[in-house]
Input
Amino acid sequence: MNVDRSQDRKFLDAAYAEAQKGLSEGGIPIGSVLVRNGEIIGRGHNQRVQKGDPILHGEMDAIQNAGRQNTYTDVTCYTTLSPCMMCTGTIIQFGISRVVVGESRNFKGFQDVLSLAGVVVDDHDDASCIRMMEEFIDAHPELWNEDIGE
Output
């Protein structure tokens, strides 16, 4: 896969805007967008709290909102936080070839599993994403622990 990193900031910002939307709705601030050929084909944010759906993580919401696709092999998933095992499995299942992560300090996620499956992973260690999650976790530790299954 030819990787064009020139637009990563733009699409990571779009994922961040999704995370902020989730936060403004009283949810967990994790956002995601799916991009093909420089165009967003799906966007979403964690809506576990808002919809009472335990599997509606940001990446899952973006994939659902992208709808049926003939292939995902030419799609990049941008996410503000390193994907959990469920989202990692879904990314692998659908053959998404690249994942751009805003940060993995607050949650390491399963980037090693993605890499082992041949997914290109770029972790931006983004200060805004780190700060957003730190503030959320400090303010809502019980909700965060529920989200990550602890």
